[in-house]
Structure prediction request, 158 residues.
Amino acid sequence: MAGELVARKITSEQLERIIQRAAELQAGEMDTGEGMTEQELLKLGSEVGIPGRFLRQALYEEAAGGAALEHGFVSRWAGPRMVLAHRVVPGEKAALEQAIGEYMTEEEAMTPKRRLPDRTVWERQKGLLAEMKRGLSFEGKAFHLARAVDVSVQLTAL
Prediction:
């Protein structure tokens, strides 16, 4: 029968792309004018079965800010100059600050460069021992931020 769906497994990556595309298709049919309010978004989400807590988290993450994507040959070839990631995580601000500080120092070989009221800017630990720690990682640590010039961490209570 035409239009029948075949029972098949959908990976998490496929699911994410399918949901995003379905939302794009639905948004294309909607007349949102200049946009919609948060309340309208929450109502729309409830109509399609998305719990409000997930929409609120996505709203908070969007409100945390995002950098405009870089376009052009150089950014496609060499990668963007800046990478931005933001997440909403449960926890007390002081405990999260301490956990991030320990992670950045121990796991990424970073040190605070500047502590500002709303964020901390981290830089690579300097010196021969720090370079050896990153380069000769006998414990198998990855040092994901080893090539970063600066890492800015901002915690905002919601």
About this structure: Residues 36-65 form one domain. Strands lie at 110-115, 120-124, 150-153.
